[in-house]
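User: Okay, second chain of the day. Same drill as before: sequence in, structure tokens out.
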Amino acid sequence: MLISEKELLKAQDLGGIPTEQPQPTEDPTDDTLPPPYVENPLSPSVLRPPPNIRPTNFVLVNEKDLAIKESYAIDPTIFVPRYTPPNPKEYPDGERRNLDIRSRDGHVEVQVWLVHPEDAVNASSGIAASKKRTTMYLYARDGNVTASVNTVPSSAPFFLDIYARDGRVTVLLPRSFSGPLKLNSRDGPIVLSDGLLQRSALLSNVDRTRIYFVGDVSNMSEDNWQGDELNVEARDGKIKVRYVDEIETQKGGFLGRIFHR
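Assistant: Same drill. Structure tokens below.
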């Protein structure tokens, strides 16, 4: 049965057919809109490395006049023999880092998955493998550094040390991170995302170096800290730190954009 336009309008007036309500429009000047950073929950599968990236350990990359853009899965329980004698300039403390990436005159952009199999045990004793923290070093003499770190629940704590001589530094941390942030920028601002600031306590701000503690600051002892830690030094560039699952949009939500990497 066909309904005439006149009958349709009459039915709408009587409330029989709901009329379409106008949708509110966003006001780019409205301060009540969502904050610049919003959480973007990730599925557990996203936090694990793709199947084509095989776990490894003690990776050393040192390039000149070349940008480095790579993805790594680091398992600190994997034994990798040392093929070359240690270089005192590269390893001043004599200890190999689990991941060591250096570029002279080039950008460094790495995505890292820290894996630690839950069934990893010491073959001789049957005791669960040591949770000694994973160490990573990223260096760019003339270029930007971007580091994205993902962890699984069984991962060991990690220490990430970054130095950029002439470039900005962007760090994306996992939600599991709990420990100090030491951020030094000689000629650039230091920016923490809203989500990270909500979970951080400022400990000091001296000579362009800020130190925060992410998580429960009462867990920090005066002894040698062996938990999560981030150290960033940028001589001529901005430092930005956020969680790996945060997305940045312009305040007001009118034009969304991904956090600049």
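Residues 11 and 62 are 75 Å apart (CA to CA).

User: Thanks, on to the next one.
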